[in-house]
Structure formats: structure tokens, C-alpha cells
Amino acid sequence: MSADVGQAAPDFTLPGTGGQDYTLASYRGQPVVLVFYPGDNPAVCTTQLKKYTADFDEFEGVDAQILAISPQDVASHEGFSSKHGFKFPLLADTDKKVGSAYGVLGPVGFYRRSVFVVDKEGVIRYAHRAIAGLTYKSTDDLVKAVRAAS
């Protein structure tokens, strides 16, 4: 079972950076970009999240909230985020239940680099699950997906 375009986005509450819990439903009324990434500190993950931080104004321009999710714990996320100055929270899916609900777990249970755009009503309007995970979706692609969902 995985979350697909046109379906209600599976709700979740996860602990994250900044010492708080984040609940998807609390963002109703604005689009959300869910960025599932394999781990803190690998080169591609770091490059991807740094790029989204550099382009943060573009996401703000379409009123989109970014939530980045991976299986590492909050302590790992806090170190990773403070090292690179990410402008959005990193959420800890340590039991991988959210990754499973969104269908982003690979054959041996590792996160596949994936991104979803959830519209302001909580419906998935864009989904991309990478097979190899060596590349990531550009800010332009994601901003276009947010605009199309509005």
C-alpha cells in the first residue's frame, strides 16, 4: 500500500528539529512539500536539502511548507540541520511507519529519495519515488507542482 496522487495524504505526527512535534494535518490550508530522504549527511541528501534551503524564498512564494523526513533520530537531525542551516524542520521517522505509509521504503527497508506535494485540503497532487536516489527533484519542478495543485 502506498500513497498516490489523488488520495488523501496519510496523516502523521513526528518529532523534529526545534524541539517540537509536527503533524501534517496542522498544515491544512497551505500546500506541503514532503521530502523523504535516506539519511543525514550523505552527499546527495546534503546537496538536496542545501539546495531547497538556498531556494527557500521560491517555496515561500507559493506558500508551501517543506517537511523533510528520514529515519534518523532527532539528535542526528539537530546536528545535521545546525551544521547546514536548513530553513525547514527535519522530522524523525525512526520506526519508518510514515515512510511505509507513503510507499518510500525500498526492498530492504531503506528510504528511497521521494517527494510529495500535498495540497491545502490534504490531498496528494504530486508524487515521485526515486529508484536509485542519486538525483533529486529540482526546486522548479516542485514549485510548478505546488502551483498546479493550487
What's the short story on this structure?
30% of the residues lie in helices and 22% in strands.
> In what range is the share of β-strand residues?
15-25%
Shape: globular
* CATH architecture heading: 3-Layer(aba) Sandwich
CATH class bucket: Alpha Beta
Trace the largest sheet across and list its strands.
5-4-3-6-7
Order of helices and strands: EEEHHEHEHEEH
Measured between the Cα atoms of the first and last residue, the distance is 26 Å
DSSP helix count?
5
Measured as a percent range, the helix fraction is 25-40%
Task: Report the C-alpha radius of gyration, rounded.
Answer: 14 Å
Q: And the CATH topology? A: Glutaredoxin
What can you tell me about this protein's structure?
The mean pLDDT is 93. The protein is 30% helix and 22% strand. With 150 residues, it is of the alpha/beta class. The protein is globular. It has helices spanning 43-54, 56-61, 74-84, 97-101, 139-149; strands at residues 13-16, 20-23, 32-36, 65-70, 90-92, 114-118, 124-129. It contains five helices and seven strands, in the order βββααβαβαββα. The longest helix is centred in the first third of the chain and has 12 residues, at 43-54. The chain has one domain (28-149): Glutaredoxin. The two termini are 26 Å apart. A five-stranded mixed β-sheet has the order 5-4-3-6-7. A hairpin with a 3-residue loop joins β1 and β2 (20-23).
Name some characteristics of this structure.
single chain, 150 residues, five-stranded mixed beta sheet
